[in-house]
Input
Amino acid sequence: MNNECHQEKNLDPREVIREAYSEIAKQGNCCSSSSCCGNSSAELITSSLGYDQQELSQLPQGANMGLSCGNPVAIASLQPGEVVLDLGAGGGFDVFISAQKVGATGRVIGVDMTPDMVHKARHNVQSFRESSGLNNVEFRLGEIEHLPVENESIDVVISNCVINLSPDKPQVWREIARVLKPGGRVSVSDLALLKPLPNTVQESVRALVGCIAGAVLVDETEKMALSAGLVNIVLKTSSNYIDQLSSWSDPLYLEISQHLPSESNFSDYVTSLEVTARKPQIKQNYKINHFISTSTH
Output
């Protein structure tokens, strides 16, 4: 990678990410910049992740910026009337999808730390109201390590390729547990590591913004969720998304792959990860977690 792609030791990861995603918000999609999706088209990404075309048709123009690496709404099994919180909501993509599922009696809150993203999402609200007939979404500016949300006020927390960007992931999981109602649940799609990345990749700003350098090992995610007090934790890995990026010849991922050991595949290191969990109804009611792998390698 070029020298300008390497982080300086005093570079604040939050500012790097905020600046990069601010640029994405202004440009309208991730295809003009490095992000979790690399440079692949937004439509190609959401289609490959199984988003419903009818629901996508209700989205405001520009809400889908191709920032997904999973489909947390699908695995959340949202029900009418539920209150949903989306961590790192961006332009509102998963918020607007969720709003259609919880209906007029439900509510969806999106939190993002990038002012330009929040502005874009709020601008999209009126269009969504007109196309869907729903008035059940709001967007708040804030960091996912310090959520601007009341204690025990949320039924479901979702997040799509965002927690890996946080420099303090244990705090994010503690915040998730704090805002969930007793019995509330978590549905997260993210990128995780199957084994540590080479130092040259970890030091790359592009890899950080691309959700790779900030990713942690799968079992670390499990430990953080457990430490936060969550139970019924299920982690499901899949190489499909990573393999698709390779087949699309995505520039960011191809560039990073050049710094991997010879005869290594990107999916040997990085995996898509679905995490589901619950906040216990009673604090002492813990259940042993499970691990499921659907990796093709």
User: Anything to note?
Assistant: Strands lie at 83-87, 107-112, 137-141, 154-160, 180-193, 231-238, 270-278, 290-293. The chain has one domain: 11-189+218-237+272-280+287-293. The radius of gyration is 18 Å. The mean pLDDT is 78.
